[in-house]
Write a structure and sequence with these properties.
The chain is α/β, with parallel strands linked by helices and 170 residues long. The chain has a single domain, classed as Endonuclease Chain A (Endonuclease, Chain A). The protein is built from seven helices and seven strands; from the N terminus they run βαβααβααββββαα. Strands 1-7-6-5-2-3-4 form a seven-stranded mixed β-sheet, sandwiched between helices. Helix 1 packs parallel to helix 3. It is globular. The chain starts with 15 loop residues before the first strand and ends with a helix.
């Protein structure tokens, strides 16, 4: 298992290979704890081993409460699974609806099978196959992060809120 204790968002420019959910979880937690403005996530079902931990949810809560312009946006391909089994981020979204938003990508992205996490458009975690935890992390690669955010924004612009999550909010 890797340690990201010495990695600083916006400063540590080192591409690191990851190959486990614990590596992904630690990197996402560390980036979220250091983020100042936004988090963007693309995930099949919000990777429970990564994003459904008390530590990660608390880091998101602290991030969005620290600045009223901060937000977390996540695109999930399987929201019905998240609703069926429960997810701490969905619970947090219910309390902080102005800061956290989930959408489902449009049908044209059905074949998209990557997992993406971008913090402050500076650091990223990218897995080229959402089915495996093999990927890369960089805490300070603005160029790659901007490219990934461009793809995220393109998908986000065509994505829609999901009725499964709307039912949860009632």
């Amino acid at each position: 298992m890797l340690s990201f204790e010495n990695h600083i968002l916006g400063e540590t420019n080192e591409k690191i290979a990851i190959d486990s959910s614990s590596d992904h979880r630690l990197a996402a937690l560390r980036m979220t704890q250091q983020a100042k403005s936004n988090i963007a996530i693309i995930s099949r079902e919000l990777d429970p081993p990564v994003y459904n931990t008390p530590e990660f949810v608390e880091a998101v809560k602290q991030l969005v409460l620290a600045n009223r312009y901060t937000h977390l946006r996540a695109m999930v391909f399987e929201p019905q699974t998240i609703v069926k089994y429960g997810h701490r981020l969905v619970d947090l979204m219910l309390d902080l609806t102005s800061f956290i938003e989930f959408r489902v990508p449009s049908d044209e992205y059905d074949d998209f099978n990557e997992s993406l996490f971008v913090a402050d458009e500076t650091g990223y975690i990218l897995r080229t196959s959402a089915d495996r935890y093999e990927g890369s992390v960089n805490f300070n690669d603005k160029r790659s992060s901007r490219i990934l955010m461009k793809k995220f924004e393109e998908m986000w612009g065509k994505a829609k809120p999901d009725p499964n999550l709307k039912r949860v909010m009632l």
